[in-house]
Amino acid sequence: ASDFNNRSNKTIDQRYYLDLKYERRLDDGATIMSRLFYDAYYYWGTYVSSGVQSRDLADGQSVGAEAMYSRTLFDSHKITLGADYQFNLRQLQEDYNVSQHQLYVRDNTRTNRWSIFAQDEYNVLRSLILNAGLRFDYYGTFGSTINPRVALIYAPAETTAVKLIYGTAFRAPNNYELYYQVAGSELANPGLRPEKINTYELLLEQYMGKHLRGTAAVFYNRIKDLIEQQTDPGTGLLVFRNADKVEAKGMEFELQWVSEDGYKATASYTAQDAKDQTKHESLVNSPKHLAKINFTFPIWSDKLFMGSEEQFTSSRRTLANAKTGNVYLTNVTLFSQKIIKNLEFSGSVYNLFDKKYGDPGAEEHLQDIILQDGRSYRVKLTCRF
């Protein structure tokens, strides 16, 4: 545990990436796309415990490629085929005692992944579309997984659409969950399996005039092999395990208004109930109610915009079966486009009114509820070629 309120405790996160993309429509109506990318992430943390300074760092670099081909066949089938590959050049995790030059953790496992996917958008009738896809992924860490997705879309009128959607997906365990190990504190678990989810959704989309659109949806999700950090009963050390089965169900509503001169407003509300089927209790850090209201309006023609967002998150259960309070936050963003060719700017203020609130802690934290940051700022410049 780190010493409370010690100014030497700090963290730095940095992200760099390069993306090269080529897209072209061929004479036969087909579309091809290819992409090359380089991605780098660096994390550096200093923590002081009982006056002893430790340093924790992560350094990741990856390269990859993606290709996709799309074409309409027989006037009613739009076929999409694709593949991608990623090689992780560097996945360094390190933790050491600065004062005593003692190394606790050093892991630099190289991994790779690749996938192939196919999708068919089939116009069964003028008002009925069947969209079916299949994706195969292979990870060097755990092996392969296959995930289908099927959507049936019925449009009885130009302004109305009903969608019935089923799909499966997964989340691969990351290197921290797989390999991070500190003697006397944490255990590695290289045998972790990916989290898997089955999703079912029924959605109604309705346009009301030219500018107003409403959606309503009900959903049901089943998750298995959820990765959870636990205390190992044999050693008393923390370890990530595929521990839980989760069932989540709920409903979502959204209303969006867009004007022709750049004004936009969106209001959304979600009610959900997520339960751990193994422990027969509500999930930790899972709110039952979420609500958002967003406004965007032009300040200078179509070049400079202001956006504001109101967020509401209801109370959440903690590990000690306590409750956090409801959270109301306001975020404001100023962003530009077309002022300077190929250059975009944005500046944001998060938690504008400096609200005090906390999130539930995890197994590795001493606090049951952890106080979050107050007002914060972010500036972003994006250059496009």
Give an overview in words.
The chain is mainly β. 1% of the residues lie in helices and 68% in strands. It has one helix and 21 strands. The strands form two sheets. The protein has a 19-stranded antiparallel sheet that branches. It is globular, with a radius of gyration of 24 Å.
List the helices and strands and how they pair.
Blueprint: E1 10-25, E2 31-49, E3 52-73, E4 77-97, E5 102-108, E6 111-125, E7 128-139, E8 143-157, E9 160-171, H1 175-179, E10 195-208, E11 212-231, E12 238-258, E13 264-276, E14 281-282, E15 289-300, E16 304-313, E17 327-336, E18 343-350, E19 358-360, E20 369-371, E21 376-383
Antiparallel strand pairs: 1-2, 2-3, 3-4, 4-5, 4-6, 6-7, 7-8, 8-9, 9-10, 10-11, 11-12, 12-13, 13-14, 13-15, 15-16, 16-17, 17-18, 18-21, 19-20
Identify the notable features of this structure and list them briefly:
single chain, 385 residues, mainly beta, 19-stranded antiparallel beta sheet, two-stranded antiparallel sheet, 1 helix, 21 strands
Mean pLDDT across every amino acid position: 92
- One letter per element, helices H and strands E, the order comes to EEEEEEEEEHEEEEEEEEEEEE
What form results from the Cα inertia axes?
globular
- Helix count equals 1
β-strand number: 21
Low-pLDDT residue spans: none
Describe the main β-sheet briefly: 19 strands, antiparallel
Helix content: under 10%
Strand content: over 45%
> Distance between the terminal alpha carbons, to the nearest Å?
46 Å
**Class per helix and strand makeup:** mainly beta
Radius of gyration: 24 Å
